[in-house]
Amino acid sequence: MDERKIIFSGIQPSGEMTIGNYLGAMRNWVKLQEEYNAYYCIVDMHAITVPKEPAYLRKKSIELLATYLACGIDPEINTLFIQSHVSAHAELAWVLSCMAYMGELNRMTQFKDKSKKNETSISSGLFTYPVLMAADILLYQTDLVPVGDDQKQHLELARDIASRFNNKYSETFKVPDPYIPKVGARIMSLQEPGSKMSKSDENENSYILMLDKPDVIKRKIKRAVTDSLGTVKYSDEQLGIKNLMTIYSSFSGENIESIEQKYEGSGYGQFKNDLTEVIVEGLRPIREKFDNLMKNKDYLENIYMLGANKAEAVARKTLRKVYKKVGFIPRKFK
Q1: Which of 104, 77, 96 has the alpha carbon at shortest distance from 134?
Q2: Same domain, yes or no, for 179 and 308?
Q3: Catalytic pick from 60, 174, 196, 272?
Q4: Is 60 an active-site residue?
Q5: How far apart are alpha carbons 290 and 272 in whole angstroms?
Q6: pLDDT tens sequence for the chain (334 residues)
Q7: CA quadruple 190, 194, 196, 199: dihedral positive or negative?
Q8: 114 tagged catalytic
Q9: CA dihedral 256, 259, 260, 261 (to 10 degrees)
Q10: Is residue 192 part of a domain?
Q11: E runs forming strands in the chain
């Protein structure tokens, strides 16, 4: 019996992955896979809260799976699966939506932010998707959930719903805790370093994609915002340079102090050239493995099929308990 704690996380297949996704999430997942029993999901059901072209969503789902694998996430020791392949996610979400309060969902800052951008046609899914997120987590009796600042509120909702259900129907769900990495790289926009790097940013010079070509990376780093001081210092007075130094340190493994010493008196030109090289070489093995995986669709199909089978066996066990406790008559089979 696996005694390791269970960890769950997922990413939407809604676009290209940035180096922020890699340094802030995926690379940490690789480190966690030996220590935890990990469920890593492609949350395609969350992706349709905003309309997506079907062929695009299918393409991005496969590419995201290949990206997981290219980063070093091992399907032999983790459960890698596509959310929509395990119907228990949607089934549990309905039950939990009957436990969630309108006031709680109204307070979700992500809903407020996203609804402002599309006020004329906001889907109810955009309003209720934190409940689906709670179902994702609670189905697997998750102990720990890696969360960034933008997801803390959603995890709190999952904890509240789990506790509410347990109090009403008896102990059913583990109440998950946040997993905060000891060292976490928060990568900011290259154009507005006060904001987090995002693949949805309208300015393509604001982010570096994991699959960007070397010449594109060079152009984006060259255009990255700095300042007029001309010194490579890790300071809140120099947010642009501070962000670039964080990226340099994250890819190279060098500490901030040694980077400051290396570029003392040299200005930003040499630093940016070297940073470009550090990023290009850091991403090269990932890009090469990704390209090879995308040529082997049968292998990828086998990975997500086996992953869904493993995930479903666990998810169904939880769902049966929930259905029984809320009063549903168990289905009979001949």
Answers
A1: 96
A2: yes
A3: 196
A4: no
A5: 26
A6: 668 999 999 999 988 899 999 998 899 899 898 899 999 999 999 999 888 899 999 999 999 999 999 999 999 999 999 999 999 999 999 999 999 999 898 888 776 666 666 666 778 888 899 999 999 999 999 999 988 766 788 899 999 999 999 999 999 999 999 987 665 578 999 999 999 898 888 899 999 999 999 999 999 999 999 988 889 999 989 999 999 999 999 999 999 999 999 998 888 999 999 999 999 999 999 999 999 999 999 999 999 999 999 999 999 999 999 999 999 998 888 8
A7: negative
A8: yes
A9: 130
A10: no
A11: 6-11, 37-42, 79-82, 144-146, 177-179
Residue 45 lies in domain: 6-184+297-326
Instruction: For residue 294, give the nearest of 283, 286, 284 by alpha carbon.
Output: 286
Same-domain status, 94 and 31: yes
Contact (Cβ atoms closer than 8 angstroms) between residue 234 and residue 245:
yes
Rounded CA separation 31/13 (Å)? 22
Residue 235: other Cβ atoms inside 10 A: 13
Q: Which residue do the tokens 């990704």 mark?
A: 290
Closest to 156 in 3D by CA, of 122, 109, 116, 195: 109
What DSSP string runs through 1-28?
A: ---SPEEEEEE--SSPPBHHHIIIIIHH
Catalytic, out of 5, 52, 114, 262: 114
Beta-bridge partners for 10:
41
Same domain, 159 and 209: no
Out of 5, 52, 152, 199, the active site residue is 199
- The CA-atom distances, in angstroms, between 67 and each of 56, 147, 216 are 16, 20, 19
Instruction: Give me the number of domains the chain comprises.
Output: 2
- Does residue 199 have an active-site annotation? yes
**Pairing relationship of beta strands 144-146 and 37-42 according to DSSP bridges:** unpaired
Side chain identity at 301, as an amino acid letter?
E
Query: Model-level pTM?
Result: 0.91
Shared domain for 274 and 305, answered yes or no, is: no
